[in-house]
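INTERNAL AUDIT FORM
Audit reference: QA-55
Scope: verify that the stored structure record matches its stored sequence.
Auditor: D.O.
Record contents follow.
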Amino acid sequence: MKAIVNVGLKQGVLDDQGKAIHHALGTLGFKDLVKDVRVGKQIILELNSDNEVSARAEVTKMCEDLLANTVIEDYDIQIVG
């Protein structure tokens, strides 16, 4: 079983890296196409579990304890396989 965790800054938190990428894309000619850019991270975990409910609970604990800074970041968990 695999868990895919997407972590990104909460709405309202300034994303300096996203702003820099947005500006660079504008200079490359994509100004009218790209409205905004937010940068995040993806963490893929291979799990030793066949129980989706308990796996999700454990990965949630991982996110709360280590993988995300819940003061400024949100996270989304997808369990696959």
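Auditor finding: record pair retrieved intact. The helical segments are 16-30, 52-67.
Action required: none
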